[in-house]
Structure formats: C-alpha cells, structure tokens
Amino acid sequence: MSLCHLPILRAGAAYESLDTVELKDLRGGASVALVSQANAGMLRRDMAKISAARRALREVPAAQLLDMCRRAGELFLCETLPTGLNGEKQSPQQYIQNLSATTGLPHALCRLNMGKVGQVFTQMPQILSGLTRGLDLESVRRGQGEHDGALVSFYALADALTVILPSNSPGVNSIWMPSVALGIPVVLKPGREDPWTPLRIIQAFIAAGYPPQAFSFYPTDHEGSNALLQLAQRALIFGDENTVARYENNPTVQVHGPGRSKVLIGDDCVENWREYLDVIAESIVANGGRSCINASTVVVPKYGREIAQGLAEKLAKIEPRLHDDENAVLAGFANPKMADIIDAVIDADLPGAEDLTAPLRAGARRVELENSTYLCPTVVWCRDFSHPLGNREFLFPFASVIEVPQSKMLEQIGPSLVVTAITRDEKWIDELLQSRMIDRLNIGPIPTNRVQWDQPHEGNLFEFLYKRRAIARA
Amino acid sequence: MNPSEAACQLDAHVREMIAWHFSSETGCPFWLDWAKKSGSDPRETVRSFEDLTRHFEHFEDEWLRDEPNERFVPRAFAGQPYYIFETGGTTGMPKQRISWRDHLLDYEEFSDTLDDKFFPRGANWLMLGPTGPRRLRLAIEHLAQVRGGVCYHVDLDPRWVKRLIEAKEFDVANRYKEHVVEQGATILKNRKIECLFTTPKLLEALGEKLDVPDAGIKGVFCGGTQMTPQVVRFLTEEVLDNRAQFVPTYGNTLMGLACSVPMTAEDRWSVTYYAPQPRAVLRVVDPSDTTRTVGYGESGRVELTTLTQEFFVPRFLERDEAIRREPRGRYCWDGVGEVRPFGQMEKKTIEGVY
C-alpha cells in the first residue's frame, strides 16, 4: 500500500509537490506519511494573490461562519475527514495514532489536545466575544455598524494571517482558529512533526462549509518560512528570546516566546502550602509540560525547600508509560538530541541548586521506552532568581522553586505569560493587578494551564487583525 | 551512433588527445613536466578512456590556482592570445583556465540543440547571470550572435552574493538580487528580446516582477545552480506558464556545457544532463572508491574529464553529486541526473541567490 501523501493547500486547492518529507513513527521507525513541500517561489507567487481568499471569506455572513464553526467542531472531533492526495481519509482514532506516532505525544495527551481544539470550534462565539469585547461580528465583516449606540468602523490589517506553527503541542493551533471565524484567511506553515492537526482543522472547516480559498497550508523549509514571514501583513510565530528580539520592532509579526509561567504563594497562604501542591503539580505537568502556560517556577516567601521536596515527591512518581496507556502523562521527544541537550544543560547548570527529584527517581532523568526518549519530571530547589535554573523553562515538566519575600516577588519575576497567585491579600492582589510583567493572572489556586475562552491572552488576535477607524456618515 | 560506437569514438579521441598533450611538439609544460616526473609516457599506456582512471590520479583544483597559466599553454598554440576564465571563489586566488575557442565551440554545438520555435533565429537575448571573468558572459553573447541576434547584459557578481550569504546578510543579498532583476526587467520592457539566459533563482525573481512570456520571452536557457525536479516544474508550469520553453543545462568553466534532453511525463521533472562528449566526459563515481562508476540509477560524486586540444583535465572531482542515468536520444553516453551539491565537501557549499 502506498504511503498517505499530505498535500500542500494553495488557497484550498490541493497540490502535490515533487519535494517531499517522509514522516516516520518515532517509536518503530516505520514510514507514516509523505508530506509535500512548497518551494519559496511558489509561496511568493501565491501570497501575491491572497486578497482573493479574503474576498471569498468575506462573502459569508458572520452568523453563518459561527454556525459552520460549531459544525466543524463536531466534524473535527467525531468524523472521518480527507487527509491524503489519493483520497485517503482519517478517522478521529487514526488522527490520534498518526499524531502520537510522529510527535511522541501519548494517546491520552493527543486526545486531551484534540478535545481542547474541539472546544475552540464550539466555544467560538464566547472566544470572539472576549476578543472583540462583544462587538457585532456582522459589523466587523461589513466594515461598519453600531456598538453601544455609536457608529463604529473596523478594517482588516491583513488579507490573511500567516502562522509558522511549532510541533510541541497540537493545542497551539487554537491560537489561529478565531482568525477565519473573524473573516481573515489563514496561511499555515505546519511544524515538521505535526502537519496532522492543522490539516484536520482545515478539513473540518471546509467540510462544514467554509470557503476552501480561506485555507492555505504550506509545509516548507526555512527559506519558505522566511518568504512567508517577509510577505505576511500579519504573522504569528513561536520561538525563543532570540526570535522575540529579532521581531521586537516589527509590528506585523507577533512572537509567542517563552512563557515563563509561574505559581506565586503569598504570605497569607504559605502556611497551608500542602493544600496547593496538587494545583502546582498540575500547572507543571499538564500536557506533558510542553506548553508555555505550564508553570516553570514556583515562588514562595518561605518553606521553599519543603515545598520543593513535596512537589518532587509527587512528580517523581510520574514515569514514562506506553504510548497507548491511558494514564501516560509524559511525551517522548521527536528529536532525541533535544532531550540529550536539555538533560546536559540542567546538569551543567545545577551546581548551587539541588535536583530534589533525582534521589526519588528509580533511574536517570533521561529514559528510553519503545525507542523513544523521555525526560522525567524534575524539581530543582534554587535559592534565588540569580541561579541559572531560577527562571528557565524546558520542553518537559520542569520547575524551580525559589524563596523570595512577597514584597520583592513582583520586581523579580520578570515577564510571565501566566501567573497563578495563591493569596487573599487584597493589597497584594492590587499590586499583582498593576504588574506589567503578567500577561494572564489567576488569583487563587487555579492551575496555570486552565484557559477560559472569553479571556484572551498573549495578545488580542482581533486587535492584531483589525483596526478601528473614526467614521461619520452624512 | 549507438553507445558502443560512442565508446569507440571516445577511446579514439582519448588516444588523440593524449598524443597531443604529451608530445613535445604540441603539449604544454605542465603535462610534459608531469610525464617527466612520473617516469611514464601516457602515449604508450593510455589506449582508452578506461585507461585514464588507471593512469591518472584526480586532477587537483589547487593546480588551477597555483600554476601560472602559461604552463597550460600547448606549444601548438604558442603566441596566440588567449582568454582566462575563472570559476567560483570568494576569497583568495580563484581557479582559472585558459581558452581559445573551446567556449565558442561548446555554445555553437549547443545552439544546434535549440528549437527554433522557442529560440528563434535572429532573436535577441538577455543574459541575466554571472558576468565578470566567467566564460558564460562571452559564451552567451556568442550564442546569440551565432543565431543571428544580439545579447543584452546585466552585471552580476556571484562572489559578492556568496560573501553576503556567508555573512548571513540576507537582506543585502536580496536587495542585490532585486537590483539585478530590476535591471533585467527594464531591458525586457524596452527592447525586443525573445531569448533569455538566467539562473533558476533569478528567473523566479524576474517572474515576480513581470509575466515572463508576456514580456516576449519564448525560450529560457537556464543554468548555474542546482535545480530540483520541483523547481524545474514550478519554473516551467508557473513562471513560464508552459508558454515559453525551459531548457536546463549543467555547465562550468572546466567542462563546457552539458545539455538536457526534453523531458517526458515519466521523468517526473527530473533533469538529466549529457556532457559534450568526447570533448568532456562525466562519470558518476562511488565517493569512497572513485575508480568505481556507480550503477545506473545510483547516486555518486560527479567526476569530469576534459579532453580538448586547448585543455586536458583528467578525473576532476566536481563539488556535485548526481544520479547516473542511461544514454538517451541523441546522446549515446551516460548522463547525470538531479545534480546537487556534494554533501561531504570540506567547505560548505553555498548556493547563492543568483
């Protein structure tokens, strides 16, 4: 049987490239699929015509886009959808199997992420309401309307949203999905190991009635990614501090950098720290520790070592399991060298801190199972933020625990995507609310990974894609 | 001619060239000294192309940098002014070869392979590719003239592009590409030009500035860098819209020009090139045992042997790898397919924006 060949979608039209990348099962090495690769010239050519995609999507009334979005969610979660160039289709179970095979995520996490993406489809009205603060979406589509009795006008800043996707977690696709519901087509460059998720989302949207032209899907190389970014009017990318720095002054590119999410415990709650260990552990471990909303630092005013020890005892029990074990929590590394590098970096930076999980584990941090490489959860007790591991995040469940007086915490935490502050101290809550370092704030024992759909974080996509103009009509 | 007749013709040509280059009447100091030092006379031992592999080690590219050019002048050409052509290079002394008529002959022969429908006789050409001390600049102009037209040029210094890319100054490299392509587009808009020589990347960039067939171009002769099947297909189907003919070639200063045969659906856009045998011979060799030619369909390193009266270069290892392909059409000898930079070269090969 020939391999399933995933296409390029050029404004919805499937294209088979002669350049392909072969995706393999990380565990057994068997070939799973061929993925057509777009050449940079093709991307430049297509991007010059992208305004036609926007015109096609704008034809559809806003309410219909939302109806179709809900239907797309049902299709994404439950139906068999087109995948390959030769008519191959993919059932939900095959999606889980394919995704797990090429990314290393266990089935349980694939299913969890699938559910999260499914929720984005079905919760789209609430998400868009959160993004637009309750605007009438038909007014946005038409370019003019009324809001709170005033005439409002919005115009799109881009004919399409370009997204260079990573492969670390399928849930990351939730970030671009509102774009099409807002009437802005997408141009997606999938991560190498996970072309499955964006393609399945696209096929669900199309099957539900979205104009195919609204979806471009371009597996490509670095040259292709650079071409997409150069031509994008609005783009989302993911990367490290260097990427953040490179695009700092480029308003057309929004970089999703390291999350450095944290759990903070206030003076008023620290005596009861044992009560919060489950919330902290979930913040660190959920989704295999692969998300930017996973906590990577726990900041407490006292009992630092005890809290670190308590967390270590919980986390050290988590071990790699077979990929189809429903209780599997950890994800294998698609690139084992990455695991080796992370393992070595932690060991090299450890002096002056203490890996409290190490003595509790049966073996080393780096473990192989089913030909896949895993890193076991690691809790490090650091005395302060100046330690090299004090404010680091890695692509597995890793956290440092740091002792800082409550009065110094906000000046030391640095930029943090999510902060869960366990406190009832209104004065400190006021200071937390005023902090410019915190993107999303959970007050009270809420795990950092819990997302509320009406609360946009990491930049408001609507404001990134649309601009309000003053308008008057005689 | 069939493949065995072609092999006989090649063996006879090898004997003739060996006789020429190792005779004190006609040979050059470099090879006469080589024979003296080696203590053997190739005229007695080399009777066939195969014998070259037994008798000669790989020609070293350093010789083309270190040896004075005069040492390569065959006595038979003494006193006749010659051209000096250079290859690649970004720093230090570039590789050089001398030439009298070889480059003209190569392109006259190539001209006979072009289809007059797409490369009309009397049509004018634009040469949008590496200029400077390269034979390509003169060769394309000669090709245009041989076919009854004239050739317009745009300056392009590929060494500067390579330097920019080495220094990761991609923005500057792109601006330079823009600068070059804009000049080409201006000439196309203001002069009647039907034939184009350019490189794949510049053709792609030109196609972003204007509709190449609508600008009057009927045929594009393309070379200079690697062309994957996808790039060939993209350029043919999209940039040229299947309206202008795309003729890919593989060539360099030492070899001349290897032509391709028109592609069929079975080729899946994979181009095969054939050296201008017997004046140059391409062999695809096993990189770990370069005396062994790989099997048909297998990949290996490209080895070039140049056999003209002007220049003898035995067994030069190119910085390319390719698939060995069967004889085809008018070419009764092996071809090289899907040429790409050789992976294990000491220095990283940089394919420029040109």
Low-confidence stretches of chain B: 344-354
Order of helices and strands of chain B: HHHHHEEHEHEHHEHEHEEEEEEEEE
The figure for the number of domains of chain A is 2
Work out the oligomeric state of the chains in this entry.
Answer: heterodimer
Please identify the top-level CATH class of the domain at 101-248 in chain B: Alpha Beta
Specify the CATH architecture of the domain at 101-248 in chain B: 3-Layer(aba) Sandwich
CATH class membership of the largest domain in chain A: Alpha Beta
Which structural category fits the helices and strands of chain B? Answer: alpha/beta
Q: What's the name of the CATH homologous superfamily of the largest domain in chain A?
A: Aldehyde Dehydrogenase, Chain A, domain 1
- Count of helix runs of chain A: 17
Briefly note the CATH topology name of the domain at 101-248 in chain B: Rossmann fold
Report mean pLDDT of chain B, rounded to a whole number: 92
- Radius of gyration of chain B over alpha carbons? 20 Å
> How do the strands line up in the largest sheet of chain B?
8-9-10-15-14-13-11-12
